[in-house]
Design brief:
Elements lengths: L5 E10 L2 E7 L8 E3 L2 E3 L6 H13 L1 E16 L4 E15 L9 E8 H6 L8 H10 L15
Parallel strand pairs: 1-6
Antiparallel strand pairs: 1-2, 1-4, 2-3, 2-7, 5-6
Length: about 150
Amino acid sequence: MIWKPNVTVAAVVEHNGKYLLVEEEPEAGAGLFLNQPAGHLDPGESLIQGAIRETLEETAYTFVPEYLAGIYQWHSHRVDTTYIRFAFGGHVTHHDPERVLDTGILRASWYSLDEVNQMIQQHRSPLVMQCIRDHLAGKRYPLELLTHYES
């Protein structure tokens, strides 16, 4: 058997001191979690396309990636899965309040840093806070670092 990590993408969006996060219940009865707009990379899409798609599906906002915030490896003992997360920083433009959000997403909202810290026990993973810390530390890598080949 060949081991393969799960590739995920995430959007780190800050506006006027607040972060765009989603409240989600990934599996029935699992409880509520707080996360960046994030999800699995779909077949054939680039990492950047995945971050744009996931943000739209989970928040109804159009995401414009400006930089790579970081690449993170994390093993979830709860589901015995390793994730490689590519987090992108940027801004959002259009919001479609009529758009139906992805299954499991209860709502998307803006949270202050204090609110995010107060709800740390609800974070989907330690990557939520780490991405915010890296954003606050000014970590920004050019999107040109990534190359997507199509065959």
